[in-house]
Amino acid sequence: MKSIKYITMLMLGMGLSISSLNAKETVEYRDFKNSAGKVIKAVLVDKTDIKAVFLMQNGRRSSVDISALSKEDQEYVKGWNKAKAYFLTKCRSLSVGALLTLRGYEAIPIKLDGNSIVVDAKINGKPAKFVVDTGAGTSLFHTGSAIRTGCKLGPFEHKVYGVSGEVPAALAQVDTLQIGESVFKNREILATDLMKDMPKGAKRRDDGLFGAEMLSELDAVISYQERTLFLRPDKSDSAKVKAVDDDQANEDALTFRIFKSKTGKIYRGNITKKTATVISVKTEKGKKIQLSISQLSPEDSEYAKNWTPEGALFLQHCRSLTIQELLELRAYQSFKYQRKGNHIFVDGTLNGNEVTWMIDTGADSSLLHLKAAHDNKVDVGPMDQKVYGVGGEAPAAGCTVESVTLGDALFKKRRILATNLDRFEQGLTYVGLFGADFMRECNAVITYREQRMFMIQVK
Amino acid sequence: MKLLKKSILVLIISAASALFASAADFRTWTSKQGGSIEAQILKYDNGIVFLTTKEPKEIQIKVADLSLADRQYLIEFAQADKDLLMKGEPDVPEHQWRKPKDFIKKLEETLSLDGSEDGFELYQTKHYLFAASKGVNPQGVAETAEACWHGMAFQHLEFIENWGTTRKLIILPKDTEVYEAVGKYEKARLIDAGQGEAADNSAATWSRVGVGNIGVKEDVMKKHNLKDRGLAFNTKDKKDFRKDWHSFQTHVICSDLLSEQLGGVSRISGNGYFPITRGHSFYKEIQLTKKTMTNLLSKDSGGDIGSKKGFDDGTAWAKELQKLVKKDKIKLQLLQTLNLESPKDLDPVKLVTMYSLSYFMQSTQPRIAAYAKLCRRINTSDQVPAPSELVKFFGYETVDAFEKDWTEFVKSRDFK
Q1: Is residue B10's pLDDT more than 50?
Q2: Torsion angle, CA of B207/B208/B210/B214, rounded to 10 degrees?
Q3: CA distance A277 to chain B (A)
Q4: Which residue has the higher pLDDT, B323 or B57?
């Protein structure tokens, strides 16, 4: 590889984190009011149980009784955390990935096929590809893939429901389903013919859908911009580590990183020291081990080479950030979503009317419910199109949607399809599927644990 | 000057001071000359980007030396000012690309599409695999392809990610006989895959086009880490591949690269894909090689094949259109141009209008940046935005305002 011509070597051994520490700190002032209504512009820099220490705009420090502040400001001071605030601006430089891999998450690279998220997996040790599908309430196999990977199939006495109606399905006995380090053992997963009605010659790009129940179980985080799926292997059946509870008190237990050796051995822990060739790791069980950097996987050897004690300290503080805090620092919009069963919903608008959308990473293109399209005055064309999904094909109409919004994100004059999403006339509470097309355009991040979706539209 | 024209079959695929960087992931950073480096951003400060490589080494690069795509990344993910894309004259990155010493490597193995022993010789570059008949020198076409690839990577954010790590297969037959054999392979492959109609279509036009599209079988794809689609040139003279910037080859390669970035459109997408992709390919062919050798071929549902081309002499395209626009004989209209659906809708004026639209959209640095954003939108939304939305990418409130500037551009000296 030819390197860039205009580069100047500065120094060796300086990683991301330590350099971030050297960058200028920006200070944001806030208006504080005392109980008499007097306003001061200041930054809260320290506090005790009774006093708050302010840095004033003139550079002086001032100590104020917390009880003398307005009720709102008292709440602010109460909720303020020094370590967090001090590092807040610096933590901005972290990616979602850097933050999550500090917390025992594993980063699984995704490949986009069209707009679909495809990940590599192993079924019973055999390679397979799955589409990550928040719109699939449960994971689903393609029958042919279940047979190919040696899963025992039960009778086709079950039914699955998709865009195109219901189809028979059988339970496939899966000994192991592995994605990255996450392993599901002895699961029964429904299998159906996912090729039904597909155009002649069409090739199946995946072996099934990695559905919401598994994503939820593994606290998945999906980041389109980073093209990565983050999972918590400790929450799977791999039983290599004890699953850690979710409450904040136990958060420390998750401060490990997953290291992989070239031969596939897994270590969970943190670097405490390093030399040029060896790292000392304290494992999550408290054991101290030495690992040769050259024997680590390429990614981990890179991480080890980049590791510095200062950087580790910095990251330790940043770890207290939530994804929400991190992304909001970067002007992302954040939506708390509603979960019904395994499906996730957000409120937005369709042609100016307030509506609810289902979030569906499995929909390459957003899709409207036909009745909702009519109800919301969408320009609906003839039913001369087809949509393909679980259950085969279904008739659909090309539509022109004047506007869709989710928070500040605006999608204008879009051509999307509409079909009857309510085949069993149960009455839908949502207008359609907010698909991967819109989410990619807004660099969406979806989190299962925090039940939030984040978006930023490139303008 | 009379040029030997080659035909191309048109396929429409269905289907401020210190700033912190926010997405500190490793990505490929590209320089004007085509050098690239994988690194994480540390910060962007006063025109200098601070990066750290995997080794790790910290490096500094002047933002002016970085690709437009990298500058767009800084704007989107490091809160850099939009001015980064507003300054300077547009570059022709394809011509600034410097060939690395070892850019092409002859492989020991050969490639046989149909399992026969007599295979193509293989030459590998960073992003392509050339399968050439014995005696064919692929140096020129390989240089063209890599330079054009760099051009896309330079201007289009996410192009590198969208392209991925696989190579594109390009077959370079020594003569028509070998090319015809590739056509037979493709027909048989399509029949095997149960795509009889596609097989008939491929066979009906194969001999008449200057380049054929082929599908790569899975075992070959896996073995050589290839994309599932490849190209085969219909060669009359095997010397054609020796020199770089062959017009027709440039057209085909640039067309293919843009298709990779756009990723096709959906069946209900409405119009716009055809004029944008074709206009782009002619624009690049003429911009990079100063002439065009390309005709468009179309096959209608009745099986008739028609050929369409622009003004006879590609070098005079701009002047001819300029004359017509200056004399008010034609009016440049966005909606009408975007509504052109296939070569059948074309006459020389319409084809050259398509060319002028692509040229206008890539005529200044801010427009190139807007064009790149438009391409990303087409990729994610599987549709070309409606005219009223498309013009907003370029900073226009109305289609009229866009058309006015487009017309002015065509009348100006900049339009060549």
Answers
A1: no
A2: -50
A3: 13
A4: B323
- Taking the CA of residue A459 and the nearest CA in chain B, the distance in Å comes to 9
CA A310 to chain centre: 28
Tell whether the model's pLDDT for residue B272 goes beyond 90: yes
Q: Is B76 on the interface with A (CB under 8 A)?
A: yes
Q: Is pLDDT of B6 > 70?
A: no
pLDDT of residue A258: 83
Mutate which of B14, B19, B20, B28 to test chain A, going by most A C-beta atoms within 10 A? B20
A238: its two tokens: 């791999």
Could you report the per-residue pLDDT of B207-216, keeping only the tens digit for each?
A: 988 999 999 9
3-state helix, strand, coil in chain A (%, to 5): 20, 40, 35
Q: At residue B370, does pLDDT exceed 70? A: yes
pLDDT of residue A319: 61
Helices marked H in B176-272 — which ranges?
176-192, 196-206, 218-224, 247-262
Distance between CA B236 and CA A101 in Å, rounded? 56
- The residue among B41, B51, B57 with the most chain A CBs within 10 A of its CB, best to mutate, is B57
Mean pLDDT of B267-271: 86
Yes or no, beta carbons of B35 and A3 under 8 Å apart: yes
From residue A158, give the alpha-carbon distance in Å to each of A140, A161, A171, A189, A446: 12, 10, 8, 11, 31
- Judge contact between A43 and A29, C-beta under 8 A: yes
User: Is B134 in a helix, a strand, or coil?
Assistant: coil
Average pLDDT over residues B93-97: 93
- Residue B56, preceding bond cis, omega within 30 degrees? yes
Least Cα distance to B298 among B308, B283, B311 occurs for B308
CA-only gyration radius of chain B, Å: 22
Where on the phi/psi map is residue B97: left (φ > 0), alpha (ψ -120 to 50), or beta?
A: beta
- Distance between B209 CA and the closest CA of chain A, angstroms: 24
Nearest to B155 by CA among B226, B85, B56: B85
Mind telling me how many Å the CA of A219 is from chain B's nearest CA? 21
CB contact under 8 A, B382 and A302: no
Q: Is a pLDDT exceeding 70 seen at residue A71?
A: yes
Are the Cβ atoms of B65 and A94 closer than 8 angstroms?
no
Q: Quick one: which of A292, A302, A264, A322 has its CA closest to A102?
A: A322
Mean per-residue pLDDT, A10-28: 31
Q: Give the mutation candidate from B29, B58, B382 for the A interface (greatest A CB count, under 10 A).
A: B58
The tens digit of pLDDT for each residue in B375-397 reads 999 999 999 999 999 999 999 99
Closest chain B CA to residue A26: B18
Position A197 scores a pLDDT of 73
Contact B60 A10 (CB under 8 A): yes
Please give the pLDDT value at position B34. Answer: 83
- Distance to chain A for B126, nearest Cα, Å: 10
3-state helix, strand, coil in chain B (%, to 5): 45, 20, 35
Q: Beta strand A182-192 with A140-142: parallel, antiparallel or unpaired? A: parallel
| Beta carbons of A16 and B52 less than 8 Å apart | yes
How long is chain A?
459
Q: Tokens 């051994």 correspond to what residue? A: A13
